[in-house]
Amino acid sequence: MSGYLSGVLAILGINIIFAYSIYITAATGQLNLGGAGFQAIGAYACALLSNELGLPIYLTLVFSAILGGAISFLIAFPVLRTKGVYMVLATFAIAEIVAGIILNTDYLGGPTGMIVNAYIETEVVLVVAVIIVILGFYIMSTRIGLAMRAVHDDEAVADLMGVDKRAIQVGAFTIGGAIAGLSGGLYALYFGFIEAQYFNANISIFVLLYVLIGGTQTAWGPLVGASFFTLIPEALRIGDDWRFFIFGVIIVIMMIFRPEGIVTRDALERVWRQLFSGKRNV
Amino acid sequence: MSDPILRLEDISKSFGGVRVLEKVSFDVERGARHALIGPNGAGKTTLFNVISGIHDPEQGKVLLEGKDLKGIPSRKRIKKGLSRSFQNIRLMPHLSVLENVMLGQHSRFQFLDMVKPLNFSAKSTGKAEAIETLNSFGIDLYEGQTVSSLPYGIRKKIEVVRALMSEPQLLLLDEPAAGLNTAETNTLRDLLKEVSNRGITLLLVDHDMPFVNSLCEQVSVMNFGQLIYDGPISDLKKDEKVLEAYLGMDEKSERSNA
Fold this sequence. Notes:
heterodimer, A: mainly alpha, B: alpha/beta, Rossmann fold, six-stranded mixed β-sheet, four-stranded antiparallel β-sheet
């Protein structure tokens, strides 16, 4: 495998994992614009545990996820008191606070960043990505997933049906934070260098776009969205300086024709019916 | 006579300075088909919201099977045997028909059952039961059918089926026949009679009097937040206060003079 292809695949894997972290919360109707903050927490946790304690990489990844999840859990309670655009702003603010803390902490390398001693191959990233994709599909295939989607559609009715919407939202936010932390850990270990400036607002916006453009209605959305956002700009390299212009035009066209995302339940259902017509009658 | 399944004792509720419910009290007997009627703005839906826990009453008690529901949040009332449908259809737009119906079962499942994939263990996850119930009410759709494209009458029916999936003792139906044509109303009435035959108590709000007359035996009438009649539906037309509320003072006087 060429270095270029290997690098693209690793970024694709990290982006897919990161997209599922945002998708899990979006599936319950919450938009998290602070993805970069949780990714940074995981990346720095992984780097410190590896550099300072010399833990095996698999353990550092587990701790990245645990720390991302634990911090998400703690801040879920105040953050989830907000809704809609206020929640977007609250999560955005959290990411800025995390970046601010890192930039002002010498122990974490401050603005000069931190070198990570351990290293992982592309294959590790891809294996973890496959596990996370399976986990995403698994969660959404269960009654918990059904309750998450119900909370997304109508909180009040879901509540009357016996769904503990607070537990569902906090749980989703926590799992999302854990997966974002894991993606940060993988980033740190794959690239070998981390700096606070990388985990900026652009990263948070892009990962949210992966999910929104991919579609929040099914577990296919983040997979398709992250792949679209990672691979299309690469494929457009033949367009040289025009590639981001062309990519922008493609996104605008997508949003006009697929406002609910590339993959919607209706679209999936149509495909399913064409493939297995008459076989799934209730 | 056995204890009532639902007893409302002096329920009062205000929004701002507006008194919406004023000491409303009545019983719903076990197994009854009980209607709650009244002009628009009488407080019927607010009373439903108080019973289902969306609003807390300022005064009074809601007793379900003799137990006070005070302090029990709305999401836990379904476990006590209380289920409801809504004035405007509130099915989940991004869930399929089957998933909407399965959502109605949520309160019956423990956490360990909730983490089983629905497609791989249809029996233990309730999927098979949901399909069977849909079929038993004559709803025969393909599995992934979403609700948004379905006719209004079928969506109303699905909402009733969803409310039944929690195995309720008491089913609150908020204007189930609103917006339905005659054929759809007849189908709904047959469905509700079948539900009633299964031993489930019905308390329904509706404006369609022929529908209410053909379905219910008992009726409570509200006007301006107060209960003005509670008794057999057969005596409803003889009641002075009800005539006044529905026909107005002048017309009532003309009637009595005629």
